[in-house]
Structure formats: C-alpha cells, structure tokens
Amino acid sequence: MKKIYKIFIPMIIFAGLFLSCDDELNQLPYDEFATENAYVTAQDFENGLRGVYSALTRGGLYGSSDAGSLLSAPDVLADNVTLSQRGRFSKRTLHDYEYNSNSTLGGTYSDAYALIFRANQILFYVQNFEGESKNNIIAEAKALRALAHFNLVTFFGKIPTQSGDANTSLGVAYVQEPDPNIEPARLSVAESYTKILEDLQDAKTKINPVNPVGRMNVDAVNVLLSRVYLYMGEWQNSIDAANQVDYQIAARDNVVGVWEDTNRDGLIFYIPNVDPILGNSIGVTWSQGSMTSLIPEYVTSFQLFSLFSDDDIRKDAYTFEGLSGGNAYNGIKKLFGRPGQTNGEVDYKIFRAAEVYLNKAEAYFNLGNETSARSALDELRTRRYLNSPNSETGVDLRDAIRSERRLEFAFEYQRFFDLKRWGLSVNRTNAGDQADGSGTPSDVLNLESGSTLFQLPLSQQSFRCKP
Amino acid sequence: MKKNYFKWLVFMFFSITTVLAQENSISGLVTDTSGEPLIGVNVIEKGTNNGAQTDFDGYFTLNVDVEKTIVFSFIGYVSVEREISDSNNSYDVQLQEDASELQEVVVTGYSRRNKTVQTSAVVSISASEIAELTPSTSIDNLIQGKAAGVQVTAANGKPGEGAFVRIRGVGSLSAGASSPLYIVDGSVVREQDLGTISNQDIENLSILKDAATTARYGSRGANGVVVITTKSGNRNKDAEIRFSSRFGYSERIQPNFDVMDASQKMQYEAELYSLGISAASNSPGVTTLPGSPERQFLLDYQTDWQDLMLKDGYIQSNNVSMSGGMENMDYYFSVGYDKNGGIIDQLDGFERINTRLNLNFDAKDWLKIGVNVGYSRSTSDEPRDRNNVQNPFRAMYDYNAYETEFELDENGSPILDENGNPIYTPTHTTFNVRGALLSEPSFEIKNNFLSSVDAEIMFSDNFSYGFNTSINSLNRRTESYSKPGGILDSIIGDPDNPGNKLDTGNYYFDMTMSNRLNYSYLSDSHNLNVMGLFEYNYNESNGYNLRSIGFPSELLTTQINAAQVTSASTTKNILTLVSYGMFADYDFEQKYLASASVRYDGSSNFGKDTRWGLFYSGSLGWNIAKEDFFNVDEINDLKLRASYGTVGNRNGISRYAAQDNVSFGSYPGGSATIPSNIGNPELKWETTATTNIGIEFNLLNRRIRGVADYFVRNTTDLLFAIPTSDEAGVGSIFGNLGEIQNKGFELSLQGDIIRNNDWKWTLGGNIFFLDHEIVELPDGEDVIPDNAYNILFREGAMINEHYLVRYAGVDPNNGAPLYFGADGEVYRAGDLPEGENRVLQGKSTIADQEGGFFTDLNYKGWGLRADFVFKSGNWINNFVRSNLNSDGINIDDNQALSAFNYWQQPGDTNVQPSPIYQNEANSVNSDRFLEKGDYIRMRNITFSYTFPSELLDKIPFNSLRLYVQGQNLLTFTEFYGDPEVGISSGETINFANTVAPGEATLYSYPNTKSINFGIDLSF
Questions:
Q1: How far apart are CA A29 and CA B853, in angstroms?
Q2: CB-CB: which of B492, B659, B672 is closest to A51?
Q3: Which of residues 218-237 of A touch B (CB under 8 A)?
Q4: Taking CB atoms and an 8 Å limit, are B666 and A278 in contact across chains?
Q5: Which domains can be identified in chain A, with CATH numbers?
Q6: Does pLDDT of B338 surpass 80?
Q7: How far lies A456's CA from each of A73, A109, B216, B299, B544, in Å?
Q8: In terms of C-beta density within 10 A (0-12 exposed, 13-18 middle, 19 or more buried), how is residue B22 classed?
Q9: A132 inside 8 A of chain B by CB
Q10: Nearest-CA residue of chain A relative to B568?
Q11: What is the C-alpha to C-alpha distance for residues B116 and B698, in angstroms, rounded to an integer?
C-alpha cells in the first residue's frame, strides 16, 4: 500500500502542473495592440493621424521604389530625366511605357488605398469621440484621403482638362469607410473630383490654421484645392484657393538650401526625414554614391538641363555634375542629401509656395487676365533669376508659364501630370545620358498625346468583381 | 578482448598466476540458420557487464570464469545461453530468427512498435544506414532518395544549409506550412534549424507518412512527421569508445555552360554596336580597336572571375562517442566538431561543435528515468544571397573578363592607396564584391540546447504513467558589419558617421510537457496497448534588431563604440497548444492488426470559439503469411494494411491572426498608428484527411523486400492569406478557404542479388508518383501568392504552376521574338492581344516522379556503395540563363557564349532573337527560359574497407573502417546549369517563406561536390 502511495504522489504533482493550461490558450500580442483600444483618447487620434501621414512615406507614394512611385514616376514617365547606363535600370518599364497591368505602379495604387483605409478608420472611430480636437481630426483625415484619391485619379484616370471625354471616362473608386471586404465600383473622373472637392472643402473649414511640423494645415489644404481646381479647369476657384495661402516663395539665396534642408523657405507641407524617426534614403530613386563615384539611375535630361539659364539658381539647386566610370553626368540633386552627405536622406517636400503662384499664373492666363498672370509668374521668376525674363504676352506668356512650372517642379512629382492635362505629347530628344548630351539616349523618345498610355493600367487584383 | 587491451595487459601482469587458473578465454563463431556469420551479436556474461560483440566475420572472443553462463543476443533473433565448462574453449552458436522481432522497431514518437504489427506507412532509417549515407552536415539532405514519397530539395549549396522536405506532396498553399513536423527526442525542431543536430548522434529517423501515425500528432502532423531519436548505450555492456573522422574538400559543381572571355565579349559588343545597339557604344569592344595597345592591355590582364571568386573548400568532421551501461543504467556521451569551408574565397563557411549526453536508469523497480541533453553551436558566414550587385555568385557571372580586381597602372601593376593597399576597381556594377567580402562581413551563430527529461512509473505489469518535458532552446543571432571606409560604406554610408553595424537575434523557446497513462495487456494471442495523453506545448519567440553608425575603427565591431544608434527594436510572441489524446494498438497473434487514435487540440492562434479541433484515425492490417492456410515457401512475409485519418495544421498564419490589431511606427511628432492585422475570429484548423492502402512483402528467404503504398490526401479549410481588393487597403486577411488534393503511389524494392559468405550485393530503389490538384479556392478566384515569382493558384490546376506567356520562338524572317497570345495565335510582343496572355500549362515546380536507387557491393571487408537520386516532371524558370542570354539588354554584363547564337539572316532557325528586338523580348514575361528540372545525380559513392578480425587482433581496436567517399560527382541533366534548385535568392524569398521551392534560379549559393577520406574506429 505504501508503495502505491509513493507512486501516486509524483504523478499528482506532475499532473498538477497542467491544471491551468486551457487559460494559456488566450494569448494577446505583445508587439501589437487591439484596434478597438487604439482609437479612444485625443492622444490616440493624434497617433492615428500620424499613422495616416506615415503612409505617405511608403514606397509607392513619396517613398523610393525601384518599381516607381509618386516620388519618381511623374518625371520618369516624362521628359525631365534620361535613363542612365550606369545604374541598375530601375523603373525602366515605366520610362519605356512597357506597362505590366499586374505590377506597374501597383505599389502606388495599393499604398494609396492603405492610406485611405487608415484615414477611414479614424473617421469611423472619431464619431464616438467628443474632444475639442475632433474637428481638426476629421479635417486632417479627410484632407489626406482626398490627397491619396487625387494622386490615384491623376495616374490611373484622365485629367478633366486633358480631353473632351475626360470627365465621363473612368476615374477611381472613392472609398469612405474602413471596410476590409469592400469591392467598390470605379467612379467617373468627374465624380472622383467631386468627392475629392467635398473632402477638401470640409477639411478647409475644420482644419487648424497651424498644425505640428509634418502635418497639413489650412494652407496646405488650400494649395491642394488650388491644384485640384486647376486640373479641373475651374480657373477662378483655383485662384481663390491660392489667394487664401499666405506664404512667400523661397528667396533666391535660399533655394539651394531648401534642397539641402538648411532652410525651410517656402515649404508649406513637408515631412522631416531624420534618423531614427524616419531616416529614409529616398534619393536612391535617382542615384547612389558620391559626386565623384556616382551610380545614377536617371540623370537630368539634356533637354531640361539646357533649359536652365546660367543665372537660374535652380541649375545649382536641382542638378550637379557627377562622375562615374570616367564620364560626367548631370545628376539629379533634389534628393541627393544634406550638406556633406550623399545618402539621399532629405525631408519629403510635398507642397511649396511656388505652386500657389504658378497655379495662379496659369489660371489667370486661362481667364484672359494676362497682367495678373504675368505678375504671379514674376513673383517666382524674380526669386530665381538674376535677370529674369519678363513682359511676354499671348502664347509666349502661356509657354513661359508652362516652362517655368517645368523648371520649378522638375523632379517634383508634377511633369507627367502637367503634360497630360495640357494634352501635350512627351517628346524626349535623342541626346544621350552623359553631361554633354553624348552617350545613350532613352529607349523610347515619344509618347503621343491621346495615347492610352497616359493612363496607367489597373491590376487584376483591383476591381476583381466590379468592372 | 580488445576494448580493454591496455587494461588487460596490466591486469594480467598482476594476476598472472592466480587469475589464469580461474578464467577461460573462449571464442567462437555466431551464424544464422543458413550458416552466414552474424555481425555485432552481443556475447555477455550473464548478470554482469563483461561482454563482447562478434566481428565482421561473426567471430568473438571473451574471457569468462568457468561455470558462468554467457548470453548470445541479437535483435531479430532468439537469444541463446551457454554454460562455460573448463574443457571447452570454443562455442559456435547458431541463432534462430525471432518471428516476433522480424525487423527493426518503428519509432512513432509516443510509442515504439515492432514493424510486423504496425499498420501505418512508415519509413525507418537506422544509425548504421545514416553512417553509410552522405556526409552532409544536415539531416534533411540525407533523407533524399531514401524514402518513397518523400521529396527533398536542397535549399542551396551553402554549408550547413538544409533542405525542403515535402512528404507526399505539398499539403498547404501557405508559405512555411508544408514542411513536416520534426520531433527530436520529443522536442519540436524547425526545418531550418536541423543543421544544429549532429548526424552521428542519431539512432533512428522515422518518417511517418499516413494518418494512422501522424494523427497522433493531431494538430501538427498534416504534412507528415519526422521522428528523430538520439543514441543510447547498451545495458550490461562495457564502455565502447567510437571515433569517427573524415576530411576532404568541396568545390562548385561545374556548370554545363561557358561564359565569354575578354576577346569574345569585346567581339560581342562590337557586333551589337554594329547592329545599332547604342548601349554598347561605351564598351571596350567599341572604344578599343582590335590589335590596338589598349585592346591588348585588356586581353593581357583579363580575369577569370569565377576562378577568382571561388575556392576549394576544406571539410572536416570529428566525432567521439562513449557508450555502454550497467544492469540498471545506460549512457551515451558524444562530442563532435564539423567544419565546411564553403567555396567562396575570403570566407570561412560553416562550423559546428556539438555535445550530447543521454542517460537512462532505473531509479527504483517502479521508476525509470531518462535524460537526453544536447548542445550545439554553429557559426555560418552569410554572404549576400540577393539578386543585386552585392551577390558574389551573380558578380562572378556579371563581371567581364576584361575587368580587373584592382586598379592597374600602365604597366599592369596594381595601384596602391595611401596605406599601400591595392585599390579595388568599382567594376561596371560600381560595387566590387571581392573587396566587399572583406569589408562587409556577415555571420550567423546558432546556440541550440535540446533537452528531454522523462520519468516513467510502473503501477503494475499493465499500468504505467509517464511524464516528459522536452525543451528546444535556440538562440540565434546575426551580425552584419559595413566597415568604415569599406565598399558599401563609401556608397551609401554617412561620411560623418562611417561604418554601419546591424545586430539581429532571436531567442526561440519551445517546451512540450506531456503526461501519458499507459495500459498494456499481453497474452498468448492478444496484444493490446492503450495510451491516454495530456500535453501542453508552449512556444515563445523573442527578437531584437539594433543598428548603429559611426565606427572609429574597422576593428571595433560592437555597437557600444558607435556614434549613433539608428534603429532599435525588440519583439515577442507566444504560441500555445493544449492537447488531449487517446491511442490504441491491438493485434491478435500478430495476424490481425488494428490501431485507432483520437486527439483533441486547442491552439492559441485561432479564433476563441473555433480553436479546438478533433482529429482521429483508424487502421487495419493483416499478416497473411502468418495464416496457417498460407504456405507459399517463396513468400516469407506478406502484410496488407489500410488506414484513414485526419490531421491538422496551424502553420502559415501569424500568431495573432484572429485578432484585430494595430502596431505603432514613428513619425515626426510621436507615435504613428498602423493597422497591422485585420482579425478573423472564425479562424480554425486546416485539416488533411489521408486514405492509405499498403502492402509489405519479403520473398525468397527475405532476399527480396518491398513496400508499396497508394494514398489520397485531401486538405480542406486551407489556411490562407485571402487577398482583399486593392481598394480595401488592407492587403489580405487570414482565413480558411479552399481545398487541395495530393494522390500518389510509392514503391520501394530491395534485393540481395548475391548473398554468401564472401560476397554480398544488394540493389534497391524507390520511386514516388505524385498527382496534385487545387480543388477549391476562395470565391473560385485565382490567387497570385506572395513569396513566389510567377506562380498562380487556380481551381483545377496543379499546385505551383508557372503562369507565363508562351514563347513561340524567333521569326526566321526578321529575328524578332514571337509569343502566343491567349487566343493561341502567334504575335510580336507589341501586338499581343489586350488583356491577359499568360497561361497555365500544367508546368509545376513540383516533381511528379522522384526517388533514388543504390547498389551496395561487399566482398569480405571491401565495400563499394553508390546512391543515386532522381527527380522529374518539375519546371524551373531559369533567370540566370535569361540574364546570361539577355539579347544584349544586359550588354554591360558578361554573357554566356550561347548569346552569340542570335538571328543574323533570314532563314536562321534554332537561334535566339536578334538583339535589335531586345526591348520586345524584355517586355514580355514569357516561358522562354522555363526549363525541365529533370536530373539523375550520383549523390554518394563510397569505397570502404572494414578490417577483419584477424587483423584487428594485432591492433588495439574493436572495429576499424576506412573509406573514401565522393558526393555529387556525377549529374545527368539537360538543364542549363545545376538542376538542384531550392532557394532562388535567399534574401528575396528566404527559406521559411518559400512557397514554391525550385521555382527559379537566381544566384543562390551553388551546390557543391566533394571528396572525403574517413575513418571509423572503436575500442
């Protein structure tokens, strides 16, 4: 009997180790947090808003991607850059218009909707929040949602002023709820723009005049509004929105420093990009290496380079001569690095005051008000040249406005959209990739206006159910 | 008596007068009933640990006191006892085969079962077989070709790297969910960590294939189970010391294609330039004239980059073990060291040291205790395995022969920097890998502690209770350093903070605690065994990731000296499992066999109300040859068996997939909320139901042995990252949707062609035929899986089919590449119909026939054994070939000689497209380089000599074997390059994430061949 007793004791002890085992099946994550608890307090919503903003830095949007992104594609698709033979041939299919519906700018498409989901999640949870920051939370979320949709529709749909059929052609789906299972239909271009305007108008009335660095404020919303109206051909609205922006264009002496992050002159909305908070080498999209040992993916096209007059400060601010394999190349400097650095780590510049004046110039010109157009244009030109051109009229003025927009926003996410909305072709010259125009030109030199290739293809994964 | 040779000398010196009178030195020959010698029979003085083993020729000698009894015992034979008389010194014994212990014991994890009465499809590989097989550092590689139904694809040739093992097809469509469950002494070990276990320590490796046994692992056995047990000592046996050592070298398996040398490449460049390819205009083939001094300079100083980048790797393996036992305990102790230098010049490759102690003892007459502990530390250099300019195996093909390692002056001497070191050229890729191998060191260290502690309490002859705790504790860390001023640092570094160090690590802890209650009933005809199981498994993973920049010296590699931390994070997650099980085995006179199991498992990664799964199995067997009515002399054994059962799988989803979660990133101003998981509260077990029918037979005095099995595996409720629409903005959501089916036939046969006293020649082989289909997918929609290149899942198609546009060859009239549109018509690239032109063609990455065969010839002590493996029916997208035959689009990179074979004039056929159409060819994602992966490879050839006892008598060894072994010396294939493709590019899609092993070639570590010399001895 004693033996049995001795045997059972250890068994009971061992078995006892297991009594509470089933509770062990209820595991909560350590590295994550339950969604329902993440949007409760004012601080939670601030965190949430920053989460939406951080989506802007993703590889498909203002981040760098070898497949192309909002950061690079509007220039790669246009005439401002030439494919370098010394790089990794990234984004080549974009540059050559060899689209693959499954992959071309697929990251841009999905990243934009990822941002939209984050914004919608805030808008969903904020309904039960009654803090004093509620209005601004709604405003920032809607402004970002509008920005993402706007970028989508400019890439994947036509732009209203592009052609007569643009407004009735297919735009994008406008998603307004955080529903993971949503399979929305594509709206027309006109409907897409209407939704964008609704969000922006609401944002404009609710957003704070001043928000922390890296966030949109009322000026940023008005810049975007001005651009949206310009794309729609609503000239007066574009001017009105622009007029509400109270910001000076960067002074000529500050232009170089703006792109080396030594001053913030004229920046309305930018995102500081510093280790360890972000610290992303976005300049890799154009080149790696130092000026004396450059690995350029793309170089300033010889055509664009020749357009910069010698007294234009932007020639120094936007381009540089880099050496690679014994040859000189016109490197792209906007994202090259801070002083002494070549790592491509600089702030994300999203909206600048210069756009306000260029939008106004273009809108005034289209309204027939050449005087105001010229004076808006000169606001910019006097801050760029030592001896700026002036006094153009008629078509010359129109071309001057267009040319100045190209120069000012070279490598800054606009050129392809500008050509597209003006109904112009992409015409690259057959100058090569080297600094003097020799070397190898881009594979494809022209994209005729009216080509369907101005609208990027949607992947099969998108709109799987709805046509 | 050899094992105590020296001791005996001493002993006999002292006791020469007294002892000799009492002891007898006896000897004899042990044979089986056919008169053949039996090797390794234990001859032991009863009740002591004084004993010996028979040698290769069946002889033994032993010193025993007169009137003692000696016992002859051998697995599979009935033991015999003899009393020693002083008049007789010679004891020849014939052992009878024990019908009840016909063959090896099959280890099924929770139990050991005699093969005669087991009813499941199980392959068992013993220690002796493992010793004879490939001297690979990893266990999984070694299984290839050994077990029917088991498909093995070497991950790559990196020393210490493992293999993808798939048992009976691919059982899941999620990454990492198709590997079998590996159990080492009760601990769960991940497939990628098997390299930490020494082959020398393995006693038995059993592969459980059908549900009759895998269902006992209920929750996790859906893709088969590999049960590995480590060695233990023999009771009542004096210590035996074994020493195994081998050394040799390895080299890359030479590719079956050539790349251009300097003059060929420059000719190619000139040809392309004359065709109008402007990208060639800066190349030396255009900028230097043939015959010019500049051209001659390039030719004089040309580099064979493959030769420069690669080396012959040194291989070394040493292992010492000591084992033995007393009446109440046994022990096994070992220490091992392995080194494989790999084939990259400048790097050290792989190194492992391992120790093990296994102890079993009877603490009381009712209490048995077992302890198995093993520790290993492995270090592996980690060259960049990425498809970019940092990869040495890409660089050695891409660098042109006219490029040099160092900058040269006009005399061809290297130019020196201010420190007197030669300056590396940037090469045309702007990154010199030769320099980077030194300035960008990266390595991985794994410290693995495996322990299993078992206590078994006997209540009575029928009842027992067992408690086991098995722990797998794995500490893995990696260090990657970009030295200040090094190749990478000067490109992407921060000049103010030179140098960049990344430390990552993972502490992985897996603990299984199990309670077993056993009941067994044994009578003359009935044999019943029932086990109840209660088990708890806890798995925790902790990670860290730290990066700093700013190092004052390249000799300082720890981050404490860094100027600035640029990133730091730690992670932690937990996965638990609770299981209840009941298993029963029964046989009646070993004729009629039956087994059943039921298991109820709950796992923490599923939905709260859906986390429990019930798994069960039943199986029947019939040993026909044991029936009285069956008397066919030629047939010794004949068993029919059938099984059905269900098994679960919980891999392939994240650990908190059922819950809605956010995580936090950083953004100027503070935290940034990022939706990290869209939860699915209804997430539940993926379930596989397997039906199996098998036959086992032994014919003609067991000279012919065979097993055949047919199975159908249906997997339902597939765990799947179900894609949502892009517009939803959330990527995919884990769910249970879809069904796949694997069907197959397995056959394995062995025959002793010659079997007599001097000669033995055995031939054997196995083959596996596999058929697989995707039966159902979420909403019936096609799925393009992540972590693959061009794989598409479609209902009705095979698993892992390539999805590509069909290449239609070259237009003989103008040299343009042609393609088939979806409509079947032939088009130029730009004219392809709108919409989708890619198609599935029934070409999968999975072989539909795979197996191995061997020949083993022995004459006296001489042995010659060759093992072959083969695979057929799989398709590989050969990206490496594509890059080497790029139609000039990669004109800056070196090209294969076959690139010259392009269209030149109308009528040319069997050529590559004209380079003037390079953009067309580059724009279509076609099957132009999709190739059959069929091959036959001589995995192993061994020539050995085992010393006979006559010779051993003169030296102080018990056994001695010398061998020379070659690995991968012969390959038969039509594939362009090496056909054994697992990982394409390890940093693009790593081992654990690979959905379709062998989909594509993309410059991963090449496979190697090796030659080894070895010695095994014991005393």
A1: 49
A2: B672
A3: none
A4: yes
A5: 39-271+348-450 (1.25.40.390)
A6: yes
A7: 11, 10, 54, 47, 41
A8: exposed
A9: no
A10: A276
A11: 12
Neighbour count for residue B100 (Cβ, 10 Å): 12
- For A100, A369, B919, the CA distances from A96, given in Å and listed in that order, are 11, 39, 9
State how far the alpha carbon of B807 is from the alpha carbons of B793, B838, B846, B954, in Å: 21, 10, 22, 70
pLDDT per residue as tens digits for the range B454-508: 999 888 888 889 999 999 999 999 999 999 989 888 888 888 899 999 999 999 9
Query: Looking at chain A from residue 394 to 433, which residues have their Cβ under 8 Å from any Cβ of chain B?
Result: 432
Letter string b/e over residues B428-450, b meaning 16 or more CB atoms within 10 A of that residue's CB: bbbbbbbbbbebbbbbbebbbbb
Residue B348 token pair = 């050290």
Between vectors from CA A100 to CA A98 and to CA A103, what angle results, nearest 5°? Answer: 125
Window 281-300 of B, Cβ < 8 Å to A: 281-282
Question: Two tokens at A221?
Answer: 């919303």
Label residue A466 by pLDDT band (50, 70, 90).
Answer: very low
Q: What is the pLDDT of residues B188-203, one digit of tens each?
A: 888 878 888 888 888 8
Sorted by sequence, the CB contacts under 8 Å of residue A428 that are 6+ apart come out as A79, A82, A301, A303, A441, A442, A444, A445, A446
- Rounded Cα–Cα distance for residues B709 and B688 (Å): 18
Q: Which residue has the tokens 């008389």?
A: B85
Two tokens, residue B211: 């549900």
Report the alpha-carbon distance of residue A188 to residue A157 in Å, rounded. 9
Nearest CB neighbour to B728, from listed A7, A96, A117: A117
Q: CA-CA distance, B952 to B961, in Å (whole number)?
A: 11
Q: Are A298 and A286 in contact (CB under 8 A)?
A: yes
CA distance B575 to chain A (A): 7
Angstrom distance (rounded) from CA B204 to CA B231: 8
pTM of the model: 0.83
The answer to whether A140 and A215 have CB atoms below 8 angstroms apart is yes
Contacts of A271 in chain B (CB under 8 A): 667-668
Q: How far is CA B437 from CA B407, B431, B443, B502, B716, in A?
A: 18, 11, 12, 16, 47
ipTM score over 0.90, yes or no = yes
* Domains defined for chain B, CATH in brackets: 5-100 (2.60.40.1120), 803-843+886-923 (no CATH)
Tokens 């057959």 locate to: A430
Residue type, B541: S
Please choose, from the candidates A258, A255, A268, the residue with its C-alpha nearest in 3D space to the C-alpha of residue A380: A255
- Closest by CA to B962, choosing from B875, B862, B893, B814, is B862
Would you say the C-alpha torsion B206, B208, B214, B216 has a positive or negative sign?
negative
Place of tokens 């600094």: A435
All residues at 6 or more sequence positions from B102 whose CB lies less than 8 Å from its CB, including other chains: B76, B114, B115, B116, B637
For residue B56, name the pLDDT band (cuts at 50, 70, 90): confident
For A213, the closest of B428, B668, B892 (CB atoms) is B668
Using the beta-carbon criterion (under 8 Å), do A100 and B925 form an inter-chain contact?
yes
Amino acid in the structure at residue B614: L
Task: Tell me which chain B residues have a C-beta less than 8 angstroms from the C-beta of A18.
Answer: 513, 515, 534, 536
The alpha carbons of chain B give a radius of gyration, in whole angstroms, of 32
Place of tokens 């273009």: A362
